[in-house]
Amino acid sequence: MLGYLLALQGVEVVVLEKHADFLRDFRGDTVHPSTLEIFHELGLIDLLLERPHQKTERVSVTISGETFHVADFTKLRSHSKFIAMMPQWEFLDFVSAQAQALPNFTLLKSTESQDLIRDGEQIVGIQAKTAGGSISIHANLTVAADGRNSRLREASGLEVEGLGAPIDVFWMRVPRQPADDAESLGFVSKDGFLVLINRGDYWQCALPFAKGQAGAIRALGIEAFQQRIAGLAPMLADAAQTLTSWDDVKRLDVKVDHLQTWARDGLLCIGDAAHAMSPVGGIGINLAVQDAVATARLLGPVLKSGTAPSLDQLNSVQKRRAWPARMTQRAQVAIHKRILVPVLTTTKPLKAPLAVKLLNKLPLLRGLVARAIGLGLRPEHWHRNP
Ligand SMILES: Cc1cc2nc3c(=O)[nH]c(=O)nc-3n(C[C@H](O)[C@H](O)[C@H](O)COP(=O)(O)OP(=O)(O)OC[C@H]3O[C@@H](n4cnc5c(N)ncnc54)[C@H](O)[C@@H]3O)c2cc1C
């Protein structure tokens, strides 16, 4: 996204992707109203929404068999009043197609950045591995947008502050029947917590569990796992039978951390490389996009002039984006501790907490939750000064 927005401003950009394509079925699929609004401002919203997606206008949660409505996006002050559940490869393919139409943008796939090139204290580019051997790319600015296990961030020596994540997630898909509920759903009971994302003919399912428990859950056998899913979401009793081996169930490691400093001379970290997000709220993709928009706005003009941004200019990105990222991470950590861990470790029947009952009764509150999730803190805009 940053590569596209810089190229739009006339900056020469090279983006590296270590994989040969974007076809990896993990991480989230949620494109929130804050991100859709940016595509509206870019004049690309209709084209983006031609890609396969399902619209989620409301979110509900079923606790011990009783359903409660907890968020309603339909009253948001935004052009798109829904979350677009779009497979991440479609979203990335769309953005990279827009970027590749620009003459000053280059995407190098199957190219893995390995190390930073330094000139004294200044970072002046990267060394990368390709099928044909090693290459060096020199640049006025190197951006580490290489995710939670960022190699460039590690090579930079920037200090990471771990915020702790007591959960991991099992991630799998099961068939969806046309008669199934259309909304994306959450189910909570003494058997745990299950999130379902409607992907048309299948449900993308996420089952969080206490960190370190993957082996113990697997040891109970795949049949016990099928029963656990059917216990949480009875409508999936048949569909869960399609999970016939642990190869059908991926374990995703959840991390929450934050860099003390996002930049050093010649290098800037953004997205998960600067602040790895938990899946809670399905918000990480959108925060990464917001970082990209702010960076393109703040640094585009100086890069266009052909000079390397100063450290102060690089730090202006952290100044703008660290607060929303930190506040969101704080909320995620609080939800891990106060809601997820108690739900995942109890064996007693669960009752809906007062807050959930109130949300179900008061549409205004459901609108506020939708605003917090859908637009978040300090949403960025394109073509408006930050
Ligand atoms: C289980 C789980 C579920 C989640 N669900 C959601 C959700 O529903 N919605 C949501 O908004 N967020 C979700 N998140 C968070 C979200 O995935 C991240 O916050 C978001 O993907 C961060 O975007 P990014 O661009 O910074 O990094 P990434 O999306 O991780 O992208 C990094 C890219 O860099 C490439 N790369 C990595 N290393 C190199 C290298 N050395 N050289 C070249 N390329 C490299 C990778 O292949 C990848 O394409 C979830 C996270 C987890 C763990």
What does this structure look like?
With 386 residues, the protein is of the alpha+beta class. The protein folds into two domains: 2-57 and 72-162 and 255-340 and 364-374, FAD/NAD(P)-binding domain (3-Layer(bba) Sandwich); 167-253, D-Amino Acid Oxidase, Chain A, domain 2. Helix content is 34%, strand content 26%. The protein has eleven helices and 20 strands. The strands form six sheets. Strands 5-4-14-15-16-13-17 form a seven-stranded mixed sheet. Strands 2-6-3 form a three-stranded antiparallel sheet. A hairpin with a 2-residue loop joins strand 8 (112-119) and strand 9 (122-130). Helix 1 packs parallel to helix 4 and helix 1 (2-8) packs parallel to helix 8 (284-304). The chain is globular, with a radius of gyration of 21 Å. The two termini are 17 Å apart. The mean pLDDT is 93. The structure holds flavin-adenine dinucleotide. The site of flavin-adenine dinucleotide has 30 residues, from strand 8, strand 13 and helix 8.
